[in-house]
Design brief:
Layout lengths: L8 E10 L3 E9 L5 E9 L1 E8 L5 E9 L4 E5 L2 E5 L4 H13 L1 E14 L8 E12 L12 E6 H10 L5 H15 L5 H9 L3
Parallel strand pairs: 4-9
Antiparallel strand pairs: 1-2, 2-3, 4-7, 5-6, 5-10, 8-9
Length: about 200
Amino acid sequence: MSDKPISWRINSARTVYENPWLRLREYDATAPTGAPASYGLVSFRNLAVGVLPLEPDGTTWLVGQMRFTFGQYSWELPEGGCPVDSDPFDTAERELSEETGMKASGWLPLMENVHLSNSVTDERAFAWLCWDLSPCDAHAADDVEDLALRRVPVGQAVHMAVNGEITDAFSLAMLLKADHLWRTGQLPAQADAAFKAGQV
């Protein structure tokens, strides 16, 4: 077997559907094994952006909303999106304000260029942990979103991720990454103290 991975080969492609948020293309391709394949790819026009906010007492903010895709209510960390040529950090600040009414002075990158569902989409995700929160003038929310807020200890949020109460993959990844950084002593002092205070 070669040490160099063999790439997929694209023979032809056609656009099946597109709207302002995504494009679906169907490819006639050749797999790395040499077998012919028909492959559908959803390309998002936005980056996924997420925030894990930490209050000094160790609580974090969860956002609840009814998700169209599964017809289920979902508790998640603050999340949003921005055009692929925009700065995702600006969007992280905006989403924090829009969904929680907070701004933060301390920020730590949690994820950069993470692939959320790489078998069917090329969506990329960026996320931050933030702390030293204070109230701010919130940005206007999206007119199709009916959001609820829930403040819980961050340790409880991690348990919710582990036991299946939180099913959003992006929120799961943020919570488990932050928990790992805390357990391995890699968080800044103020964030470390808040994370420790939020253990249940």
